């Protein structure tokens, strides 16, 4: 059976992106950097989570952020207040970061700083529940966010992102008492599509769950560092 033109084009785009992603990851590995790809729908709380994460971990882990947004640097400016390197990428009409865009961000990072000084780069992807999960950027792990305000059914309706995630953060849990929402059902739906994923409920506002998230990040970075040392 012949593929449609659109299907063949999509496969070619993903193949080309995968090649670029592997190139990015080779740079990360060469520099001894762990990369996390942070993904969610718009408004799930990625930047708020990053603000708390950078504030808590920047004294323990040397880190930088690659900040993806369609048109502005509003989120990048929020993170720059914490005095860590933030590389802003505007995607225009594109609904996700791709590997080539992140390669441009890595070029800026290597031009402005010494990349081997960093242990962690966090990529904040464009808010979208579908496309970011399909286009790898060279990350070592994908972190997906799902806010309690989005409902329990999203992992089943948009399974790709949740299937690909290594860690799933259920965000804005401080709002749960005011919503008709079941956190256990959210987790159960997530595990239908990804039984092995780490699930951590958090609130960037109250701080609930954040120590578990910080521990996950530190443990993942340390494990990768040990792996690189063995090699």
Mind explaining what this structure looks like?
It is a single chain. This protein is α/β, with parallel strands linked by helices and 231 residues long. The protein has one domain: Rossmann fold (3-Layer(aba) Sandwich), CATH 3.40.50. 46% of the residues lie in helices and 17% in strands. It is built from 9 helices and 7 strands, in the order αβαβαβαβαβααβαβα. The chain has a 7-stranded parallel sheet, sandwiched between helices. The termini are far apart. Keywords: GTP-binding, Hydrolase, Metal-binding, Nickel, Nucleotide-binding, Zinc. InterPro entries: CobW/HypB/UreG_nucleotide-bd (IPR003495), Hyd_mat_HypB (IPR004392), P-loop_NTPase (IPR027417). Belongs to the SIMIBI class G3E GTPase family. HypB/HupM subfamily.
Order of strands in the sheet with the most strands? 3-2-4-1-5-6-7
**CATH superfamily membership:** P-loop containing nucleotide triphosphate hydrolases
Helix share, percent: 40-55%
Quickly give the CATH architecture: 3-Layer(aba) Sandwich
- Largest sheet data: 7 strands, parallel
Q: Might you state the CATH topology name? A: Rossmann fold
Q: Radius of gyration, Cα only, in angstroms?
A: 17 Å
3D shape: globular
Protein name: Hydrogenase nickel incorporation protein HypB
Keywords: GTP-binding, Hydrolase, Metal-binding, Nickel, Nucleotide-binding, Zinc
Family: Belongs to the SIMIBI class G3E GTPase family. HypB/HupM subfamily.
Organism: Almyronema epifaneia S1
